[in-house]
Amino acid sequence: MKQIGFLSFGHWSATPYSQVRSASDALIQSIELAEAAEDLGADGAYFRVHHFAQQLASPFPLLAAIGARTKRIEIGTAVIDMRYENPLYMVEDAGAADLISGGRLQLGISRGSPEQVIDGFRYFGYVPPDGQTDADMARHHTDALLQALAGSGFAQPNTSPMFPNPPGLLRPEPHAPGLRDRIWWGAGSRATAEWAGQQGMNLMSSTLLTEDAGVPFHELQAEQIRLFRAAWAAAGHQREPRVSVSRSIFALVDDRDRAYFGRGSQDADKVGTSTPRRRRSSADRMPRSRMCSSRNSPTTRPSRPPTRCC
Asked: What's the CA gap between 104 and 149, in Å, rounded?
């Protein structure tokens, strides 16, 4: 493990004992949390993106604010659901946030997780074409994002523009050099990890895989990473890929922690059903907290009980 950081969902709740009562609380405390993590020597501050929920959703204003208030720590997402995204608008937002941070943005993207509403991406105006699935649409949006991040112009300039144009085809601005190499794919299976390697994206492997091969979770995850690295090498990418893994750990340091989380450790993998297939997730460990630990990558530090922002 080379780097460690935290992953926050940014929940808020107007309940009597909550110290995160509103969206404003969640956002401001997320900025403060990233500053504190940097002061403590952590390497990464990452935020989950959930739509239609009392959690963090639109990440780029938050990431830009953190980028302006910190100097060293990597900042990013784990993960943005690409079914909801306009790829070119996302290139502009991500470019601005990356430039504000001085090139510290690490964007985790994916097809997404189970949603709060049915097919929520449709409310955002995105519908898979006939014959395609929402996963196909997520990959199409991802392809467009990666091509635009490469920085080549593709848009025909107006012959009578409001402002003078540079020569040639135009691209979304501002352009963030190097951001294309800092895109991560949250892979839920071995096959999607191989696809990420082929596309030249870094790999985020979580505590859940949407398949069960009948072996312990850590062995399945290790195979997923091996397949990713093999696909990367076969594709001929020149740079060294990065891989992150996450673990849920809750640090029990006082009686309040034990009251919330100290009701026993689950040391065995969990196997369940995620329609239409079985899935396997890692065991919970004590001490525990929402944590991403990683080799070459983003990750997470222990957090306090849910009365705090993470």
From this structure: 15
**How far apart, in whole angstroms, are the C-alpha atoms of residue 34 and residue 93?**
20
Neighbours of 99 (CB within 10 A): 17
Q: Which domains does the chain have, with CATH numbers?
A: 3-153+170-176+243-295 (3.20.20.30)
Interatomic CA distance for residues 177 and 231, integer angstroms: 25
Taking CA atoms, 35 is separated from 15, 67, 106, 202, 306, in Å, by 26, 10, 17, 25, 19
Q: What predicted TM-score, i.e. pTM, was given to this entire model?
A: 0.84
* Distance of alpha carbon 209 from alpha carbon 220, whole angstroms: 8
CA distances from 158 to 89, 164, 165, 171 (A): 19, 10, 9, 13
Per-residue pLDDT reduced to its tens digit, 108-149: 999 988 889 999 999 999 999 999 999 999 999 999 999 999
The residue among 169, 170, 172, 165 whose CA lies nearest residue 149 is 172
**Whether the Cβ atoms of residue 240 and residue 181 lie closer than 8 Å to each other:** no
Distance CA 261, CA 288 (A): 8
